[in-house]
Amino acid sequence: MTDPAQITLPKLEALGLTDDAGRPLVESEPLLPGADVAILPLAFGHTNFETPRIHEHPFAGAWRQACYSPAPVRLYRLRGAYVHSTAGVVMVANRLVAETLQHVWPQEHGMEVDRQTGFTTLCSAAVRRVAGRAVHLLAAGAYNYYHWHIDAVSRLSILPKAHADDLLLVPPLEHGFQRDTLERLAAEHPLTLHAIGPAETVLVDELILIPNFGGFGYYPRPEMLDVFDRLMRPMDAMPPHRRLYVSRARSSKRRLETEPEIAALLAAEGYEILDLDTLTLDEQIRCFAEATHVVGPHGAGLTNLVFCRPGTAVCELQMDCYMNWLFRRLGNLRGLRYGCVLGSIQGPWELVWPHDRSWRLPPDHLHDTLQGAGFLG
Predict the structure, then answer these.
(1) Model confidence pLDDT, tens digit, residues 124-181
(2) Which parts of the sequence belong to the Glycosyltransferase 61 catalytic domain (predicted)?
(3) How far is Cα 372 from Cα 32, in angstroms, rounded to an integer?
(4) What CA–CA distance (Å, rounded) separates 248 from 97?
(5) DSSP percent split of the chain into helix, strand, coil, nearest 5
(6) Domain 242-372 falls in which CATH fold?
(7) Distance between the two ends of the chain, CA-based, in angstroms?
């Protein structure tokens, strides 16, 4: 299958294309209007970034925002849609749907792009047909704890009840947290799943797609908390009493060179040092639901802030060349008390891909910040 064009869903719908039976290939309906979401001010630590040299996501100056405005959300019904790879790239009427290409690396997903013509080829040994109706629950990077929950699973928060019994298109469930999430949700309502591999394609009679819910994490909406409330509901958590440090010692990306000293400092103050890779989803939910204080470097483990109680204090350790406000905004939905401490990249300061770089944060500076913010003692 080869396609020269990318197109957004509103433009594709506006073309008025129909199938052989005269039915629209693309139909949509509104789910949520546009909204304004207020952001709580930075509560402690670094609260002014006018002077430090930083590189921010989603854009420069985001640290000072007091509000952001998520776009309206629509549900799209696509007939005769091809769905490709674990990323869930969608093709309709020989056009790639632009909203499904975010963070997609073609070489990782069985796609080839001709540099001269711009044609994109979806490389599949065979195309399987999925009869009936299916819901798109795929996302690039869904093997990652953050992207699985925020880019994929959160869509179930607003999926209309009319689609509760539909087949769910999911990536291969290779990780325990993926299986745990769906098993816990299936205890409320049976789920039927169809897994799509990294270079597989299916042809779906009728595909239900809710694109860009939460703006790929940068513009999260309060409505997305519904599915996380459902995950928490069976948990008989105790009142908050735990102090947590979320370790990234296992990760080779954005390695915090001073993490051993920081973890030792916090352990001496009674903090639990969490290696989340060793915990089940239930154990992670319980830890964060019972937390009064959370400290940790920016990373997928902080996705668990969605399970915290309002008022929980969070100190995120941020890297100067990769200041990412995803977790400030996510915690804001729960009413968390958020602050951050800034560390420095090692080696030349330049706007390079930061995930392969190491960084440092002086433990003494962190200690003083946490002491003043009520995290210690």
Answers:
(1) 877 999 999 999 999 999 999 999 999 999 999 999 999 999 999 999 999 999 999 9
(2) 145-315
(3) 41
(4) 35
(5) 30, 30, 45
(6) Rossmann fold (3.40.50)
(7) 62
